[in-house]
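If you are new to this repository, start here. Below is one unmodified record pulled from the training split, so you can see the exact layout before writing a loader.
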Amino acid sequence: MLRYVTTNAGKVREARDYLSDGSVSQLDFDYTEIQSPELEPIAARGAREAYRHAGEPVLVDDAGLFIDALDGFPGPYSSYAEETLGIERVGELARDTSRGDVSGSRTQSDEAADPARAAFRCVLAYCDGDPFDASPDPIDRGDRAAAAAASADDEDDATTLPVKLFEGVVRGRIVEPRGDGGFGYDPIFEHEGQTFAEMTAAEKNAVSHRGRALGKFSEWYATR
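And here is the target side for that same chain:
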């Protein structure tokens, strides 16, 4: 049984679109979220901790909205920015910065030069206690944060427990809020003419960053 570590039942339902219903279940476990400017170490650290807690295969995700005009902010801090600033303010910051970056001397294509462009990124981290064969998808083999906190008896496990990583990315742009569906930043993220909040759940899942990561993971997991 694969345990998807999340408090969001919707993520588990989305995972079941890519995996057989009986192969994945939800695990509500409050793992430590380390501070990092990148998603990968956050997800990998969480997967190691969740695996040690559950003692069975686990899947942890970390995701964020990366806005080009804000140098990738809020990125891994997306949840905190949503709670403290709100999505409307984050959108305003992006659009205000974008307007300040607009220049009539640009020679790039309109899409490439669009200063409101952004991306949703998701990293899935899988751990089952066993090593992995080499493949195009990265393997995180080190966990310095865990090693620093480990005792002498379990230090080797803390530094060598491997985690397989799968990334999904969807490009779009920041717009005024539109739509009543979805959650989080969905109303201000437009992809191919629609915000995520204007899409049905099925439409969003078909193009979402998490769906793309799950697609990669499910192909690999079928051979595990």
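Two things worth knowing about this chain: DSSP finds nine helices and nine strands in the chain. Confidence is low (pLDDT under 50) at residues 102-111, 146-158.
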